[in-house]
Amino acid sequence: MPKKPDQSYHMSADEFRRWGHAVIDWIADYHERIESFPVLSQAQPGDVRASLPAQPPAHGEDFSAVLADLDRVILPGVTHWQSPNFLAYFPSNASGPAILGELLSAGIGVQGMLWATSPACTELESHVLDWLIDMLGLPGHFKSTTDGGGVIQDSASSATLCALLAARERATGLDANEHGCDRRLVVYTSLQAHSSIEKAVKIAGLGKQALRLVDTDEHHAMKPGRLAEAIEADRAAGKVPCLVVATVGTTSSHAVDPLPAIGKICREHGIWLHIDAAMAGTAALCPEFRTIHHGVELADSYCFNPHKWMFTNFDCNAFYVAERAALIRALSILPEYLRNQATESGAVFDYRDWQIPLGRRFRALKLWMVIRHYGIEGLQHHVRRHVALAQQFADWVRDDDRFEVAAPVPLNLVCFRHLGGDAINQTLMDRLNQSGHLYLSHTRLDGKFILRLCVGQTKTEAHHVERAWQRIRDVAGTVEKEQNT
Amino acid sequence: MPKKPDQSYHMSADEFRRWGHAVIDWIADYHERIESFPVLSQAQPGDVRASLPAQPPAHGEDFSAVLADLDRVILPGVTHWQSPNFLAYFPSNASGPAILGELLSAGIGVQGMLWATSPACTELESHVLDWLIDMLGLPGHFKSTTDGGGVIQDSASSATLCALLAARERATGLDANEHGCDRRLVVYTSLQAHSSIEKAVKIAGLGKQALRLVDTDEHHAMKPGRLAEAIEADRAAGKVPCLVVATVGTTSSHAVDPLPAIGKICREHGIWLHIDAAMAGTAALCPEFRTIHHGVELADSYCFNPHKWMFTNFDCNAFYVAERAALIRALSILPEYLRNQATESGAVFDYRDWQIPLGRRFRALKLWMVIRHYGIEGLQHHVRRHVALAQQFADWVRDDDRFEVAAPVPLNLVCFRHLGGDAINQTLMDRLNQSGHLYLSHTRLDGKFILRLCVGQTKTEAHHVERAWQRIRDVAGTVEKEQNT
Fold first, then answer.
1. B179 to chain A, minimum CA–CA distance in Å?
2. Which of A66, A360, A442, A460 to mutate to test binding with chain B, by most B CBs within 10 Å of its CB?
3. What pLDDT sits at residue A7?
4. If phi over 0 gives left and psi between -120 and 50 gives alpha, with beta otherwise, what is residue B89?
5. CA torsion angle B192 B193 B195 B199 (round to 10)
6. Which portions of chain B are predicted below pLDDT 70?
7. Interface predicted TM-score (ipTM) over 0.95
């Protein structure tokens, strides 16, 4: 029914309360019934669009119609990342306090591009990121109270790009910013590093040929000797090494690059070292897992994603630099319409100069709320539980002579495979995922098709992992029989 | 009080309902009392951090403590972008349905990096962005049902960077992606264009010297003749022009570059034309304002920000390309762990290849909810109202012989100044902003300090603009007297 033109069309405060409560209840219900949905959406290409009207509405609709369509149109097309049976990729977990923090960020609706455009947005962010340094046992020189500092990026991809830009400018004395990249710049990472590093190298104008993919050892971690050789060969050829990206917990297999040796090489050659600990970094909440960060004090920059494994909904990447001036020099531009006294005083951070976009929302709120709700103790509890469940799963795999564990399991990701070869593993994964009971993903290691099971969803409990293993064995039995007939 | 270790630490469904309702009510209350706060935060550097504990909490806290700190710690450090008296910069407005859409996005918590990782996230986005094409009267070749398509970016800055990367690769036959930027590439925009263009040129490795700032006319719009001359001079010098960025509604003064003439030049020279209509684009909801888009059919890419003036909270930039294959070629990398049947079928969009980061949240939800709540009619109503209020304000300025309007007022931004010179205008702005009653910003045009008043906040009504003008005149009177004594 069209609204009359004398109405404001806005949702009134009372309507907002009413529909807001309804949405909160819808989300609570969704999480309570989430295991009733197939984890992997069974939608086919075009299904969702076919359920939507071709034309936008000329007149406003009642919000109840929108809520009804969440169930009718949206949920059938959702892969349920928040399901406890979501064991694919890396998780992107969330929690009650994080969701409410995101809601508050939207409700307050400030822009944090400059300190002056909302001081609390900047200062809470600096403060909470300093807390995380203590919580994870990271080096003190990343703190905002030193020459370093932390900032929230949308993703590890963007953090890598920012690290590369800072490194590029440090290596060229700001010449790349002024005159453009020259083709002598080179970047190093391992063969197992994330695709975002190649993407950053392309975006930043170095080109794919500037990327050296250093060989890995039998555990899929970078070989520092090969890194040193590559750097020396490049230097001898007149190249300018500007960045090494080391990974703590690779996406394929959770390999941890040997940071002390890599860091030493970077120091010797004056090369910026960035460490990407996207999922694994969260484990450092627990002192017993901090070995993964051994050598991190040699890094020029570091990031991990609270939006993966720390119950803080996407997007929330915590990115730290040891020398913030280098980052700011690479990214700062100050047009007249953004000039202000606070910026010119030098007493504040303007986070627009620490990132690619200009605008930014109040993402520190959700991180603050998660940390306060759980406390260090609560976060440690869940990290330990996830790691223990993954280790238990790995033991089950080792004890079944049809399967093998395909890579070391330092934390919560298990790479494993059926010994029957690639085809059987592919079929096994497809069947399991199509069943809707659970969702796994895959990778290739040493040329072989490998299954990945990652325990990191907020509500994943022992019985979910137990049932996953039972289903994997059952489906494997069926597939084996089919292959033998 | 520390929680016991046998608890799960998670917020239960019942607690989520309880605290969720409380947060909704807090937001409703905040918007009802928003005019009681000084618009510009009066916090001094360090004030917010001084109110926060130095150490993170070892044990979880009750959510009521967090909510209490919103009022105690956060609000004093907030500049109230959602206040109807916020008349600075460009707005970053929001609305009830948008806030609830953001809440739902956080509650559902999917990753939309691939179609396969949540089909609804991708398909709703393509669909709603196609709706916007009809709603704004944009060219049909931007639709996802043709060779083009739309995608949500976090900001116009990122859209510009993506356009530049696509243009760079088209101009170099993917050579920049492969071998790195060469220093022959050049980019053109006007002297009045946004700082994000210089930032993109630096990020993408072209360097600031590759950026040509084309002269503007007396209305601060690009001179196409000068553009043509610059391109020809560069070609003659062996340079490779790859991108022109034209602006519909510059940040300083809302100047509209002459798109038909610029587009014609770009076509003649085979140069990618990107149009940045960050705030002004929303005006095209109303047929009578679509003259701003005259010539947009000549663009290779276009963006505007529903998060500025279309009641959809940040971040939500709508970015369109006429040839999506060019964008995807520039940004696509497919590692093994992201391979899937839907991607390989070619029947779906994987939006990770349309943007800088890999991960992405379900931002289409809020846009869908805004469009359905308001309908085209409701959105048009508010755009017309804002434009009428700005025009009224401009008339008042013109009628006061102490002031002048300093640039054309095509839509909802008024540039004006007191005729007493820069110092009086700076003092006037500082006094007004420090008063907390309203918030203006400034720019420089033709070397002069200019005040900017933009009418675009969701709840800005006639009486807010009237009172703003009254206060401006009153404070001007006081400052004039001080200067005369």
1. 4
2. A66
3. 63
4. left
5. -140
6. 1-7
7. yes
